[in-house]
Amino acid sequence: MSIDVILNRALDGERISMDDAVKLYESDEVEKIGEVANQIMKKWHPDPVTTFVIGRNVNYTNFCDTYCSFCAFYRPPNSKEGYVLDNEIIFRKIQETIDVGGTEILMQGGTNPNLKLDYYTDLLKAIKERFPNIWMHSFSPAEIWKIAEVSNLSIEEVLSELHKAGLDSMPGGGAEILTEETRLRVSRLKVTWEQWIDSMKVSKKVGMHGTATMVIGFGESYEERALHMQRVRDAQDETGCFTAYISWLLQPENTALRKYKKLTARDYLKNVAISRIFLDNIKNFQSSWVTMGPEVGKLSLEYGCNDFGSTMMEENVVSAANTTHKVNTNQILQLIREAGKIPAQRDTRYNIIRTFEENESAEKDFIMQN
């Protein structure tokens, strides 16, 4: 069957199946798939506006007992190279973010078995006391399950208490590929795909929202990629828990997965486009310029992405795998304009804070830090 049949059905508003997705992955007609993804994106976002958020990724600890084979960032518990950031350092990083117009803190770390729920609730309360308007888009499903385990609580109890203390939403890190076949091969101790999905559903139940992610390049099959998307789509149908979808490529350098050949920009763009076509119930798709670089990030705006993601003032996890792309706010404005779009700063809920006029620059800018 020609992929034209699948693409035309998608354009007509019909849901494509997992089998359809596999056929798209098998196709080399990436530009054609991208054009349809772009048209579908425009149905969601008819105005030529590309959004971005000014935020910072604060990695509060690198102690982790999950030992993912693809991670170059973590250190085992009690390692001399491990750390838990002092609260004052976290406060300083947040203030620096606010000083350049930032609105979001994406705070994530390892699954640290020595940190129980009170550490997180005390920290969140202290942050909100000092910075009541900062949006805490923080912690991942794996961290939530670790907190629940060491605190002898359910994930609903943990998420409810975190939300009361100041957690506003939860990023969808750690999804990788939502099949046990791949997870058991590359991250045997990490949360199962069911646990990942459950935590996102529960986050919505207690009054928050989250994002969904996908990482390809683990040697997973096309069928597994399609199943990953199906499970995300089903969860979104059931709860509406996802505000956005973000995918990127495995960065194998400096990790135990160096044997896997790093996928290409073309692989990334194809995956973005197929995801946009398949996930017909998620409005926002973020570009992953941090892993792919600014130019590919710009190109992804023609393959289904409507958002350039975060300025990412600080990033330590991907850079530990020897992949570091850095842009500041004014560079983001330039890249968006080069793509023929109008740049607009948003908040975490995708409300537009400010639209930048032609040739207008950001008054405050930053140098990305590590």
Automatic annotation (TrEMBL):
Residues the entry annotates as binding (3R)-3-methyl-D-ornithine: 140, 288, 310
Pfam families associated with the record: CofH_C (PF19288), Radical_SAM (PF04055)
Chemical reaction(s) catalysed: dehypoxanthine futalosine + S-adenosyl-L-methionine = cyclic dehypoxanthinylfutalosinate + 5'-deoxyadenosine + L-methionine + H(+)
Residues annotated to bind [4Fe-4S] cluster: 64, 68, 71
Pathway: Quinol/quinone metabolism; menaquinone biosynthesis
Biological process terms in GO annotation: menaquinone biosynthetic process
Keywords: 4Fe-4S, Iron, Iron-sulfur, Menaquinone biosynthesis, Metal-binding, Oxidoreductase, S-adenosyl-L-methionine
Keyword check for Iron-sulfur: yes
Domain Radical SAM core as annotated: residue spans: 45-280
Highest taxon, organism lineage: Bacteria
Protein's recorded name: Cyclic dehypoxanthine futalosine synthase
Organism lineage string: Bacteria, Bacillati, Bacillota, Bacilli, Bacillales
